[in-house]
Design brief:
Radius of gyration: 19 Å
Strand order of the largest sheet: 1-2-3-4
Helix content: 40-55%
Number of strands: 4
Number of helices: 3
Structural class: alpha+beta
Largest sheet: 4 strands, antiparallel
Length: about 130
């Protein structure tokens, strides 16, 4: 699928991108918390201390799988838009420019109200 956006079109994506990105961050936070809980439970087991009931670990693992699956779905939604999370900055989403290329496109950072040109780093048209 070919996706290309001018500055105005990229700016119009912000509410949707913000929502998708927020969900991804919240689920990543939940995954970290579940992993901490699982580690604590496993550490307690190795020390011979009582642990949570067996069903609790299964529940944690099920929740972990659910959050991972939902992050993959959110990433696919960004991909359908032609966008992606910046591999170097997880708080930035890259949006393809008018030629469909990310390199000549736009970026949105968490907290920004406008997109900025990827190459120029500021609001406005990409170079």
């Amino acid at each position: 699928m070919y996706n290309a956006y001018d500055y105005t079109g990229a700016d119009r994506l912000i509410p949707l991108i913000r929502m998708i990105h927020r969900e991804m961050r919240e689920r990543a936070d939940a995954i970290r918390e579940i992993n901490i809980q699982l580690h604590r439970q496993q550490s307690a087991t190795s020390l011979g201390q009582p642990t949570l009931a067996e069903f609790s670990e299964v529940n944690l693992l099920a929740n972990l799988s659910n959050h991972k699956r939902e992050i993959r779905k959110a990433e696919k939604e960004l991909t359908r838009l032609g966008c992606c999370v910046d591999g170097d900055n997880p708080f930035r989403v890259l949006i393809p420019g008018a030629n469909g290329e990310i390199e000549n496109g736009y970026a949105w950072r968490v907290g920004d109200e406008k997109v900025s040109a990827v190459l120029q780093g500021g609001p406005g048209e990409a170079a």
